[in-house]
Amino acid sequence: MEADSSVYPCDFYMLDQYRLGNLNQDGYPALDRKRAEIGFVEQSVALPEECKTCPYVFLCRNGCRRCRDAQGKNIFCESHQRFFAYAQGRMKSVAEACRNASTIGNR
């Protein structure tokens, strides 16, 4: 949302074609209808075929759509794959530690 109460689906797409409305003038139902009409989220979650078999798709989801090339692939795909391969074990350890801490705190 902007200072004038204009609402957009993303702060990187504050263009007239993506404007959902104005919170001071339009109600939530109108903003939601415009959101559905534009289809921004639906377009953003579409995945290229190669992403569907990637072991890291659940982490990346093809990234932010502003970082996609003309074919719809994330321009940082290779670096994301290298990072996730390096960090996956560490991320699982942190998640397990958080689960354990949460379990201990609920006793």
From TrEMBL:
Please give the cofactor(s) recorded in the UniProt entry for this protein. Answer: [4Fe-4S] cluster
Q: Which domain of life is it from?
A: Bacteria
Xref: InterPro entries: 4Fe4S-binding_SPASM_dom (IPR023885), Aldolase_TIM (IPR013785), rSAM_sf (IPR058240), Sulphatase_maturase_rSAM (IPR023867)
GO terms for molecular function, please?
A: oxidoreductase activity
- Which PANTHER family did the record assign? ANAEROBIC SULFATASE-MATURATING ENZYME HOMOLOG ASLB-RELATED
Name the record gives this protein: SPASM domain-containing protein
